[in-house]
Amino acid sequence: RTKLSGHELLCQLKEKVQLSTLTPDFQPFSAMAWASLLLPPQQLSSDLGPYKSCAVVSSAGSLRNSGLGKEIDSHDAVIRFNAAPTSGFEKDVGSKTTIRLINSQVMANEDLRFLSSSLYSSGVLVAWDPSPFSSDLSQWYNHTDYPIFSQYQRYRRLHPQQPFYILHPRFEWQLWQRIQDNMAEPIQKNPPSSGLLGTVLMMSLCEVVHVYEFLPSRRKTELCHYYQRFYDAACTLGAYHPLLYEKNLVKRMNQGSDQDIYVHGRVTLPGFRSLNC
Ligand code: NCC
Fold first, then answer.
1. Side-by-side strand order, sheet with 99-103
2. Ligand 1 and 180: CB distance under 6 A
3. Which residues of the chain fall short of a pLDDT of 70?
4. To test the ligand 1 pocket, which listed residue (59, 113, 175, 223) has its Cβ within 8 A of the most ligand atoms?
Protein backbone atom coordinates (compact mmCIF):
# COMPACT_ATOMS: atom_id res chain seq x y z
CA ARG A 1 0.00 0.00 0.00
CA THR A 2 1.37 3.42 -0.92
CA LYS A 3 1.28 6.27 1.53
CA LEU A 4 -1.21 8.96 0.49
CA SER A 5 -0.06 12.55 0.03
CA GLY A 6 -1.52 15.31 2.18
CA HIS A 7 -3.81 16.36 -0.64
CA GLU A 8 -5.03 12.80 -1.20
CA LEU A 9 -5.70 12.44 2.52
CA LEU A 10 -7.71 15.66 2.54
CA CYS A 11 -9.77 14.48 -0.43
CA GLN A 12 -10.44 11.13 1.27
CA LEU A 13 -11.71 12.95 4.36
CA LYS A 14 -13.93 15.17 2.24
CA GLU A 15 -15.36 12.21 0.34
CA LYS A 16 -15.76 9.68 3.11
CA VAL A 17 -16.55 11.60 6.30
CA GLN A 18 -19.97 13.21 6.28
CA LEU A 19 -20.86 15.64 9.04
CA SER A 20 -24.31 14.70 10.27
CA THR A 21 -26.38 15.62 13.32
CA LEU A 22 -29.58 14.05 14.61
CA THR A 23 -32.87 15.52 13.42
CA PRO A 24 -36.36 14.49 14.58
CA ASP A 25 -37.13 12.68 11.32
CA PHE A 26 -34.41 10.02 11.93
CA GLN A 27 -35.48 6.58 13.16
CA PRO A 28 -36.07 5.80 16.03
CA PHE A 29 -36.50 9.44 17.07
CA SER A 30 -39.45 10.08 14.78
CA ALA A 31 -41.52 7.98 17.17
CA MET A 32 -40.43 9.90 20.29
CA ALA A 33 -42.39 12.93 21.42
CA TRP A 34 -39.37 14.63 23.05
CA ALA A 35 -37.37 14.47 19.84
CA SER A 36 -39.63 16.62 17.66
CA LEU A 37 -39.89 19.05 20.57
CA LEU A 38 -36.19 19.32 21.41
CA LEU A 39 -33.94 18.19 18.54
CA PRO A 40 -33.09 20.89 15.97
CA PRO A 41 -35.22 20.43 12.83
CA GLN A 42 -32.20 21.02 10.52
CA GLN A 43 -28.67 19.75 10.14
CA LEU A 44 -25.93 21.74 11.91
CA SER A 45 -24.31 22.36 8.52
CA SER A 46 -27.41 24.04 7.13
CA ASP A 47 -27.83 26.25 10.23
CA LEU A 48 -24.19 27.35 10.71
CA GLY A 49 -21.65 28.91 8.35
CA PRO A 50 -20.20 28.92 5.84
CA TYR A 51 -17.39 30.77 7.62
CA LYS A 52 -14.24 32.14 6.04
CA SER A 53 -11.62 31.54 8.66
CA CYS A 54 -12.01 29.31 11.73
CA ALA A 55 -10.07 28.37 14.85
CA VAL A 56 -9.96 25.05 16.67
CA VAL A 57 -8.67 25.49 20.22
CA SER A 58 -7.36 22.26 21.73
CA SER A 59 -7.30 22.24 25.51
CA ALA A 60 -3.60 21.44 25.72
CA GLY A 61 -1.45 22.75 28.56
CA SER A 62 0.97 24.16 25.99
CA LEU A 63 -1.55 26.95 25.27
CA ARG A 64 -0.40 28.48 28.55
CA ASN A 65 1.65 31.64 27.96
CA SER A 66 1.08 31.31 24.23
CA GLY A 67 -0.41 34.81 23.87
CA LEU A 68 -2.57 33.39 21.06
CA GLY A 69 -5.84 34.89 22.34
CA LYS A 70 -6.02 37.83 19.93
CA GLU A 71 -5.20 35.68 16.92
CA ILE A 72 -7.80 33.07 17.93
CA ASP A 73 -10.51 35.70 18.39
CA SER A 74 -9.73 37.22 14.96
CA HIS A 75 -11.26 34.18 13.23
CA ASP A 76 -14.91 34.18 12.14
CA ALA A 77 -15.76 31.12 14.20
CA VAL A 78 -14.06 29.39 17.14
CA ILE A 79 -14.65 25.85 18.44
CA ARG A 80 -13.72 24.80 22.01
CA PHE A 81 -14.03 21.51 23.85
CA ASN A 82 -15.67 20.05 26.92
CA ALA A 83 -15.13 22.09 30.09
CA ALA A 84 -12.39 24.35 28.67
CA PRO A 85 -12.99 27.90 30.01
CA THR A 86 -12.11 31.25 28.45
CA SER A 87 -12.68 33.38 31.55
CA GLY A 88 -9.30 34.17 33.10
CA PHE A 89 -7.39 32.71 30.12
CA GLU A 90 -8.33 35.24 27.43
CA LYS A 91 -4.74 36.27 26.72
CA ASP A 92 -3.80 32.73 25.70
CA VAL A 93 -7.04 31.23 24.30
CA GLY A 94 -9.26 34.21 23.42
CA SER A 95 -12.85 34.74 24.46
CA LYS A 96 -14.98 33.96 21.39
CA THR A 97 -16.89 30.67 21.46
CA THR A 98 -18.98 29.85 18.40
CA ILE A 99 -19.28 26.12 19.00
CA ARG A 100 -18.54 23.97 22.07
CA LEU A 101 -18.12 20.26 21.35
CA ILE A 102 -18.67 18.12 24.43
CA ASN A 103 -18.38 14.40 25.02
CA SER A 104 -21.22 12.65 26.84
CA GLN A 105 -18.98 11.96 29.85
CA VAL A 106 -18.89 15.70 30.49
CA MET A 107 -22.69 15.83 30.37
CA ALA A 108 -22.95 13.06 32.96
CA ASN A 109 -20.14 14.10 35.33
CA GLU A 110 -21.71 15.78 38.39
CA ASP A 111 -18.49 17.67 39.21
CA LEU A 112 -18.59 19.48 35.87
CA ARG A 113 -22.09 20.89 36.55
CA PHE A 114 -23.17 20.59 32.95
CA LEU A 115 -26.79 21.56 33.59
CA SER A 116 -26.07 24.64 35.69
CA SER A 117 -22.62 26.08 34.95
CA SER A 118 -22.43 29.22 32.78
CA LEU A 119 -19.34 27.69 31.15
CA TYR A 120 -21.59 25.94 28.64
CA SER A 121 -23.98 28.80 27.96
CA SER A 122 -22.17 30.64 25.15
CA GLY A 123 -22.21 29.47 21.56
CA VAL A 124 -23.80 26.46 19.97
CA LEU A 125 -23.47 23.13 21.79
CA VAL A 126 -22.69 19.89 20.00
CA ALA A 127 -22.58 16.61 21.94
CA TRP A 128 -21.16 13.20 21.04
CA ASP A 129 -21.09 9.78 22.69
CA PRO A 130 -18.18 7.34 22.31
CA SER A 131 -20.27 4.14 22.12
CA PRO A 132 -19.25 1.64 19.40
CA PHE A 133 -22.49 1.83 17.41
CA SER A 134 -22.10 3.49 14.05
CA SER A 135 -25.24 3.68 11.96
CA ASP A 136 -27.83 1.70 13.93
CA LEU A 137 -29.36 4.55 15.92
CA SER A 138 -31.79 2.28 17.81
CA GLN A 139 -28.98 0.10 19.14
CA TRP A 140 -27.04 3.19 20.11
CA TYR A 141 -30.08 4.79 21.77
CA ASN A 142 -30.42 1.72 23.98
CA HIS A 143 -26.69 1.33 24.75
CA THR A 144 -25.06 4.75 24.97
CA ASP A 145 -21.77 4.93 26.90
CA TYR A 146 -23.13 7.78 29.05
CA PRO A 147 -26.72 9.05 29.47
CA ILE A 148 -26.44 11.53 26.60
CA PHE A 149 -30.16 11.56 25.75
CA SER A 150 -31.56 12.11 29.23
CA GLN A 151 -28.99 14.86 29.91
CA TYR A 152 -29.68 16.43 26.52
CA GLN A 153 -33.39 16.63 27.27
CA ARG A 154 -32.76 18.13 30.71
CA TYR A 155 -30.38 20.72 29.32
CA ARG A 156 -32.70 21.71 26.47
CA ARG A 157 -35.60 22.23 28.88
CA LEU A 158 -33.46 24.40 31.16
CA HIS A 159 -31.88 26.38 28.27
CA PRO A 160 -34.44 26.31 25.47
CA GLN A 161 -32.88 29.26 23.61
CA GLN A 162 -29.44 27.76 23.12
CA PRO A 163 -28.92 25.74 19.91
CA PHE A 164 -27.81 22.21 20.80
CA TYR A 165 -27.02 19.41 18.34
CA ILE A 166 -26.11 15.74 18.74
CA LEU A 167 -23.50 14.24 16.40
CA HIS A 168 -24.53 11.20 14.40
CA PRO A 169 -22.20 8.43 15.61
CA ARG A 170 -21.52 7.45 11.99
CA PHE A 171 -19.41 10.63 11.71
CA GLU A 172 -17.09 9.38 14.50
CA TRP A 173 -16.63 5.97 12.96
CA GLN A 174 -16.17 7.22 9.40
CA LEU A 175 -13.37 9.39 10.74
CA TRP A 176 -11.95 6.48 12.76
CA GLN A 177 -11.84 4.44 9.54
CA ARG A 178 -9.82 7.18 7.79
CA ILE A 179 -7.25 7.00 10.59
CA GLN A 180 -7.09 3.20 10.48
CA ASP A 181 -6.88 2.96 6.69
CA ASN A 182 -3.92 5.30 6.67
CA MET A 183 -1.89 3.53 9.36
CA ALA A 184 0.19 0.41 8.86
CA GLU A 185 -0.73 -1.12 12.24
CA PRO A 186 -4.14 -1.80 13.81
CA ILE A 187 -5.28 1.02 16.07
CA GLN A 188 -7.54 0.78 19.13
CA LYS A 189 -11.25 0.66 18.32
CA ASN A 190 -12.05 3.83 20.29
CA PRO A 191 -13.44 6.94 18.65
CA PRO A 192 -11.24 9.89 17.67
CA SER A 193 -10.73 12.58 20.29
CA SER A 194 -13.01 15.61 20.51
CA GLY A 195 -10.14 17.63 19.06
CA LEU A 196 -10.07 15.75 15.76
CA LEU A 197 -13.86 15.49 15.58
CA GLY A 198 -14.06 19.26 16.01
CA THR A 199 -11.35 19.85 13.40
CA VAL A 200 -13.24 17.88 10.75
CA LEU A 201 -16.50 19.50 11.85
CA MET A 202 -14.93 22.92 11.18
CA MET A 203 -13.45 21.74 7.85
CA SER A 204 -17.06 21.07 6.87
CA LEU A 205 -18.16 24.64 7.74
CA CYS A 206 -15.14 26.86 6.96
CA GLU A 207 -12.94 27.91 4.04
CA VAL A 208 -9.79 27.59 6.11
CA VAL A 209 -9.22 26.07 9.55
CA HIS A 210 -6.45 26.90 12.02
CA VAL A 211 -5.86 24.34 14.74
CA TYR A 212 -4.04 25.53 17.86
CA GLU A 213 -1.78 23.29 19.97
CA PHE A 214 -3.10 20.01 18.63
CA LEU A 215 0.39 19.43 17.23
CA PRO A 216 2.44 20.62 20.19
CA SER A 217 4.71 23.65 19.78
CA ARG A 218 8.02 24.34 21.53
CA ARG A 219 5.86 25.04 24.61
CA LYS A 220 5.05 21.31 24.77
CA THR A 221 4.48 20.27 28.37
CA GLU A 222 3.12 17.42 30.43
CA LEU A 223 0.53 19.83 31.83
CA CYS A 224 -2.68 18.19 30.60
CA HIS A 225 -4.99 21.21 30.18
CA TYR A 226 -4.22 24.94 30.11
CA TYR A 227 -6.88 25.42 32.79
CA GLN A 228 -5.90 22.79 35.39
CA ARG A 229 -2.91 21.86 37.52
CA PHE A 230 -2.83 18.23 36.39
CA TYR A 231 0.13 16.57 34.69
CA ASP A 232 -0.11 13.56 32.39
CA ALA A 233 1.74 13.09 29.10
CA ALA A 234 -1.07 10.78 27.93
CA CYS A 235 -3.27 13.88 27.44
CA THR A 236 -1.02 14.91 24.56
CA LEU A 237 0.05 11.47 23.34
CA GLY A 238 -3.16 9.52 23.87
CA ALA A 239 -4.28 6.41 25.73
CA TYR A 240 -7.97 5.78 25.16
CA HIS A 241 -8.17 7.87 21.98
CA PRO A 242 -5.89 7.07 18.98
CA LEU A 243 -4.41 10.53 19.53
CA LEU A 244 -0.89 9.86 18.25
CA TYR A 245 -2.31 8.52 14.98
CA GLU A 246 -4.70 11.49 14.74
CA LYS A 247 -1.77 13.86 15.11
CA ASN A 248 0.26 12.00 12.52
CA LEU A 249 -2.60 12.40 10.05
CA VAL A 250 -3.05 16.10 10.79
CA LYS A 251 0.71 16.64 10.40
CA ARG A 252 0.53 15.08 6.92
CA MET A 253 -2.43 17.30 5.94
CA ASN A 254 -0.98 20.54 7.32
CA GLN A 255 -0.63 23.25 4.69
CA GLY A 256 1.25 25.65 6.96
CA SER A 257 4.96 25.54 7.74
CA ASP A 258 6.75 23.43 10.36
CA GLN A 259 7.89 26.74 11.85
CA ASP A 260 4.21 27.65 12.44
CA ILE A 261 3.79 24.46 14.45
CA TYR A 262 7.00 24.88 16.39
CA VAL A 263 6.61 28.56 17.25
CA HIS A 264 2.84 29.04 17.39
CA GLY A 265 1.43 25.51 17.70
CA ARG A 266 -0.59 26.35 14.60
CA VAL A 267 -1.73 23.99 11.84
CA THR A 268 -3.53 25.25 8.70
CA LEU A 269 -6.05 23.03 6.93
CA PRO A 270 -8.30 23.81 3.96
CA GLY A 271 -12.04 23.61 4.35
CA PHE A 272 -13.73 20.93 2.25
CA ARG A 273 -15.42 23.50 0.02
CA SER A 274 -12.09 25.04 -0.98
CA LEU A 275 -10.54 21.66 -1.89
CA ASN A 276 -10.26 20.65 -5.52
CA CYS A 277 -10.37 16.87 -5.58
O1 NCC B 1 -9.03 16.55 27.49
P2 NCC B 1 -10.06 17.03 26.54
O3 NCC B 1 -10.54 15.77 25.65
O4 NCC B 1 -11.24 17.77 27.05
O5 NCC B 1 -9.32 17.93 25.44
C6 NCC B 1 -9.95 18.40 24.26
C7 NCC B 1 -9.12 18.03 23.04
O8 NCC B 1 -7.88 18.74 23.05
C9 NCC B 1 -6.82 17.92 22.54
N10 NCC B 1 -5.74 17.87 23.57
C11 NCC B 1 -6.02 18.05 24.90
C12 NCC B 1 -5.00 18.04 25.83
C13 NCC B 1 -3.68 17.86 25.40
N14 NCC B 1 -2.64 17.90 26.27
N15 NCC B 1 -3.42 17.66 24.09
C16 NCC B 1 -4.42 17.68 23.18
O17 NCC B 1 -4.15 17.51 21.98
C18 NCC B 1 -7.43 16.56 22.22
O19 NCC B 1 -7.72 16.50 20.84
C20 NCC B 1 -8.73 16.56 23.01
O21 NCC B 1 -9.74 15.80 22.37
C22 NCC B 1 -12.10 14.35 24.68
O23 NCC B 1 -11.48 14.07 23.62
O24 NCC B 1 -13.32 14.50 24.75
C25 NCC B 1 -11.23 14.56 25.95
O26 NCC B 1 -12.08 14.66 27.12
C27 NCC B 1 -11.52 14.38 28.42
C28 NCC B 1 -12.59 14.61 29.50
O29 NCC B 1 -13.71 13.73 29.29
C30 NCC B 1 -13.09 16.07 29.45
O31 NCC B 1 -12.02 16.98 29.47
C32 NCC B 1 -13.96 16.39 30.66
O33 NCC B 1 -13.27 16.30 31.85
C34 NCC B 1 -10.92 12.99 28.46
N35 NCC B 1 -10.37 12.69 29.78
C36 NCC B 1 -10.79 11.69 30.54
O37 NCC B 1 -11.65 10.91 30.20
C38 NCC B 1 -10.13 11.55 31.88
C39 NCC B 1 -9.80 12.94 27.42
O40 NCC B 1 -9.25 11.63 27.36
C41 NCC B 1 -10.27 13.35 26.04
1. 164-166, 124-128, 99-103, 77-81, 51-57, 206-212, 266-270
2. no
3. 1
4. 59
CATH number at residue 131: 3.90.1480.20
Can you tell me the ipTM of this complex?
0.98
Which atom of ligand 1 is the closest one to the Cα of 234? 14
Give me the number of domains the chain comprises: 1
Task: Report if residue 1 sits inside a domain.
Answer: no
Residue 142 is predicted with a pLDDT of: 96
Please write the tens of the pLDDT for every residue from 151-192: 999 999 999 999 999 999 999 999 999 999 999 899 999 999
Nearest residue CA, atom 35 of ligand 1? 235
* Residue among 124, 135, 245 nearest 179 (CA): 245
Inter-CA distances, 244 with 159, 211, 214, 247, 266, Å: 37, 16, 10, 5, 17
How buried is 57 (Cβ within 10 angstroms: 0-12 exposed, 13-18 middle, 19+ buried)? buried
CA 7 to chain centre: 22
